[in-house]
Prior knowledge:
The protein is mostly helical and 38 residues long. The chain has one domain (4-37). Helices cover 82% and strands 0% of the residues. It is built from two helices and no strands. The protein has helices at 4-15, 19-37.
Amino acid sequence: xxxxxxxxxxxxxxxxxxxxxxxxxxxxxxxxxxxxxx
Length: 38
């Protein structure tokens, strides 16, 4: 999962998303990662 973070930070910096969008994306990735690992 750690390898995704740099790409997420770059995308957020380029797109200038709002904090709400950032939280939504992080939650979605967390849920996907949890489902895959489980």
